[in-house]
């Protein structure tokens, strides 16, 4: 095509098809009808038709449709012997063709050739015994003819081939149609026997159908036996919820509610929870209909147990799920079940030996031991504690709580040597402050003071910076009346190079000396403390101590301490601390001082002024201005001329403002002069 440009008028495929339909281009005229008037024309027509069929068969013998058309044409002419001959020739070509056998047998049956039809069905089921359609047609024909015995005989021959499930049920339904219940039962038994021995159909629904058959015919004892045999056959490895649901509903229909409850519980305890949803549902409905409050609660517990099982199966190291699961089991189950769940829980050891991963896990052991002690015997509790302390990697970390609980358990069992041995082992393997404190508290309760002293010595060797331990040790000696020993302990404590709370230790030592009314030693302690720190609270405490000493010189000593403190605090950068000291001093003078001392302390009080300072951001850029309060002390003003100059400037500015105000209001000055 040289001109490839599109035509001016475009024609679509739809338009072409529509025009072809309208013009009826593809319709062929029907062939003319031929009327046969005599026998010769009929014979001639038959000859030509047969020749056509034979030619088609000769071209391709394997096309069975040609044979069937040929035979059906002969049948339409009532030439049964010719049609039979054609079918036989076709079977020689392909005897496995199911359609051929069916058409052949149907032809004989339509023409009431019963014996011929039986012969064909016999040949068919002998040649192709696995084609169920032959058996169905054969048995149906015999039954329609009223030959029940013959139909039963055909069914028996069929059953020898161990056919599919529907064949057995067809045989059973056949017997039931003629009220042969015993025969139907025997067929069910044979069917189940095949299930047991040959395992052709190991399906639950076959057993359920058998049981329902017995129930339908009011043989309830037989039905129950069928269910029991089914449960025994499938066992615990191949349990199916449908069997137990059907069994329970059967018992429910017989008003055997306790049996129903036992069946449901037995199944729920053994079937995997994800396969028992329908079982749960039916059990819940049953309990709501016939159960009491306890039964309904059992159902709810079972559902929650299933949920927890799924959670711990998805993540065995989810210890919170284990705690919830154990709490549920403890409230409802027996001891063996609870113990089994605990063993499963503690078997999930944290994969990493870091204490933060073990903190939740260790409480599984704690709860397990407490449960055994409260619910079971002491021997198992001891085994739980021992297994736990052996499991913990003490070289990396330990849990003092476990050791202390173990020791307290042994004390409750009146086994003091084992308790001491456990705590001693814990201190030897993994010393901790909490372990020492717990051991010391135990010995204090037992009034074993010598052991307490030895433990405190070991404790302080382990942690010499622990001020609380020093204080408790000294308090113990004080209670026991050994003052010199207590004082020596305090001296050792304050001489340590590193302490975690030195201020608490010094305060305790000072309070100790005050209680012993050793005021001179207390003063020395304050002096020694002030050599180490010039904190304002120490000065105030020193002054208050002198005030409370109760001697004649208390006021003068107290005032002297305040004087020293004020001189020492002049160089302090924290002006708030100095203000705190002066306020404490002023309070003292207001209560015990004279007018002169009061006036003096008032002069020492600072002036509070507002100032501004420039702020800088982290990157060094300007961040604006900030207002803050500062204190100007009179003593510092005298020593700093700049501050004095600043005060004079403020005074001049004030006078300047007053003079300007006077110039602005001259009438007021005249009135004042006249008056």
UniProtKB/TrEMBL annotation:
Gene Ontology cellular-component annotations: nuclear speck; post-mRNA release spliceosomal complex; precatalytic spliceosome; Prp19 complex; U2-type catalytic step 2 spliceosome
Domain of life: Eukaryota
UniProt main location, coarse: nucleus
Key words, A-Z: Coiled coil, mRNA processing, mRNA splicing, Nucleus, Phosphoprotein, Repeat, Spliceosome
Region: Disordered, residue numbers: 655-675
GO biological process terms, semicolon-separated: spliceosomal complex assembly
Record's compositionally biased regions (Acidic residues): 660-675
Coiled-coil regions listed: 512-578
InterPro entries: HAT, HAT_Syf1_CNRKL1_C, Syf1-like, TPR-like_helical_dom_sf
Residue span, Pre-mRNA-splicing factor Syf1/CRNKL1-like C-terminal HAT-repeats domain: 65-357, 364-527
Subcellular location: Nucleus speckle
SUPFAM superfamilies, sorted: TPR-like
Family: Belongs to the crooked-neck family.
Function field: Involved in pre-mRNA splicing process. As a component of the minor spliceosome, involved in the splicing of U12-type introns in pre-mRNAs.
Protein name: Crooked neck-like protein 1
Organism field: Centropus bengalensis (lesser coucal)
């Amino acid at each position: 095509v040289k001109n490839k440009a599109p035509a001016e008028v475009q024609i679509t495929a739809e338009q072409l098809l529509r025009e072809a339909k309208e013009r009826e281009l593809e319709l062929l005229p029907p062939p003319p009808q031929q009327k046969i008037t005599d026998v010769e024309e009929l014979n001639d027509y038959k000859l030509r038709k047969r020749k056509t069929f034979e030619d088609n068969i000769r071209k391709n013998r394997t096309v069975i449709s040609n044979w069937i058309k040929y035979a059906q044409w002969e049948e339409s002419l009532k030439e049964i012997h010719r049609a039979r001959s054609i079918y036989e020739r076709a079977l020689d070509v392909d005897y496995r063709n199911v359609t051929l056998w069916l058409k052949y047998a149907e032809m004989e049956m339509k023409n009431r050739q019963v014996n011929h039809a039986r012969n064909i069905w016999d040949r068919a089921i002998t040649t192709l015994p696995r084609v169920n359609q032959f058996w169905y047609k054969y048995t149906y024909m015999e039954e329609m003819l009223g030959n029940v015995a013959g139909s039963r005989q055909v069914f028996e021959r069929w059953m020898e081939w161990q056919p599919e499930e529907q064949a057995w049920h067809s045989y059973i339904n056949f017997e039931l149609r003629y009220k042969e219940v015993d025969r139907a039962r025997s067929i069910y038994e044979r069917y189940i026997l095949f299930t047991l021995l040959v395992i052709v159909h190991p399906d639950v629904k076959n057993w359920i159908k058998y049981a329902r058959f017995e129930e339908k015919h009011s043989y309830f004892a037989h039905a129950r036996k069928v269910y029991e045999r089914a449960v025994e056959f499938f066992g615990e490895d191949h349990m199916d919820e449908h069997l137990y649901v059907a069994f329970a509903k059967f018992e429910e229909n017989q008003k055997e509610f306790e049996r129903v409850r036992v069946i449901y519980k037995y199944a729920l305890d053994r079937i995997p929870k994800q396969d028992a949803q329908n079982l749960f549902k039916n059990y819940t409905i049953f309990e709501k209909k016939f159960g009491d409050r306890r039964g309904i609660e059992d159902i709810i517990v079972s559902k929650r147990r299933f949920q927890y099982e799924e959670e711990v199966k998805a993540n065995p190291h989810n210890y919170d799920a284990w705690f919830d699961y154990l709490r549920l089991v403890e409230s409802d189950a027996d001891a063996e079940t609870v113990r089994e769940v605990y063993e499963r829980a503690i078997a999930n050891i944290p994969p990493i030996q870091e204490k933060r991963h073990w903190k939740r896990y260790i409480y599984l052991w704690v709860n397990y031991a407490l449960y055994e002690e409260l619910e079971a015997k002491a021997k198992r509790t001891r085994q739980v504690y021992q297994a736990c302390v052996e499991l913990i990697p003490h070289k990396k970390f330990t849990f003092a709580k476990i050791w202390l609980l173990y020791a307290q358990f042994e004390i409750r069992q009146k086994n003091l040597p084992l308790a001491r041995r456990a705590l001693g082992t814990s201190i030897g393997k993994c010393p901790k402050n909490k372990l020492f404190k717990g051991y010391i508290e135990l010995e204090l309760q037992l009034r074993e003071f010598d052991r307490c002293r030895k433990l405190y010595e070991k404790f302080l060797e382990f942690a010499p910076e622990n001020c609380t331990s020093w204080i408790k040790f000294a308090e113990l000696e004080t209670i026991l009346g050994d003052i010199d020993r207590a004082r020596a302990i305090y001296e050792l404590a304050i001489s340590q190079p590193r302490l975690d709370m030195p201020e608490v230790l010094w305060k305790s030592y000072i309070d100790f000396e005050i209680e012993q009314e050793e005021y001179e030693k207390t003063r020395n302690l304050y002096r020694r403390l002030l050599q180490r720190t010039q904190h304002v609270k120490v000065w105030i405490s020193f002054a208050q101590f002198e005030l409370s000493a109760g001697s004649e010189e208390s006021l003068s000593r107290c005032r002297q301490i305040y004087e020293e403190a004020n001189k020492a605090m002049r160089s302090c950068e924290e002006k708030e601390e100095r203000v705190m000291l002066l306020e404490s001093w002023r309070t003292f003078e207001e209560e015990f001082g004279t007018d002169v001392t009061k006036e003096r302390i008032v002069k020492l009080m600072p002036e509070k002024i507002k100032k501004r300072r420039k702020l800088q951001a982290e990157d060094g850029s300007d961040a604006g201005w900030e207002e803050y309060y500062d204190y100007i002390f009179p003593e510092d003003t005298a020593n700093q001329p700049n501050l004095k100059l600043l005060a004079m400037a403020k005074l001049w500015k004030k006078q300047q403002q007053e003079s300007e105000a006077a110039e602005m209001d001259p009438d007021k000055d005249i009135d004042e002069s006249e008056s």
